[in-house]
Design a protein that fits this description.
Helix content: 40-55%
CATH class: Alpha Beta
CATH superfamily: Ribosomal protein L30/S12
Radius of gyration: 13 Å
Number of domains: 1
CATH architecture: 2-Layer Sandwich
Low-confidence stretches: none
Strand content: 5-15%
Order of helices and strands: HEHEHEHEH
Number of helices: 5
CATH topology: 60s Ribosomal Protein L30, Chain: A
Length: 123
């Protein structure tokens, strides 16, 4: 397990995170470790997603700690490329991390499912 990954995420939970991102396509997001760090520190993110295949992994190691301090739910997905696609970014673009700033009505139920699933993983 990588240095920035605090808990293992089953494939079904990762898929729920991707589905939530796809359903939330009209919601505001911030992408990249600098922007995600800022939103975490300010406590303005609704949910933070981190890719497990980031190199070097130390790039994201601080974000889960900030999320825990600010009580921001966060989860992991295996692929930067798939995360970028689920967020609606252009093909070929990768996203090491994404902060979901706003959950749209169409994605609220999926968001609730993801948060509950992640609570079960961290317990």
């Amino acid at each position: 397990m990588s240095v920035h990954v605090l808990f293992e995420t089953p494939e079904e939970v990762s898929n729920k995170i991707y589905d939530m991102m796809s359903a939330n396509s009209n919601g505001r997001i911030k992408k990249g470790s600098n922007e995600v760090t800022k939103t975490a520190e300010r406590g303005t993110a609704q949910f933070i997603i981190l890719a497990e295949d980031v190199n070097p992994p130390e790039l994201l190691a601080h974000i889960p700690l900030i999320c825990a301090e600010k009580d921001i739910p966060f989860g992991y997905v295996p692929s930067q490329e798939h995360l970028a696609q689920a967020a609606g970014l252009p093909t070929g673009v990768k996203a090491a991390s994404i902060a979901v700033m706003e959950i749209t009505k169409g994605a609220q139920e999926k968001y609730n499912d993801v948060v509950e699933a992640i609570k079960g993983l961290k317990a």
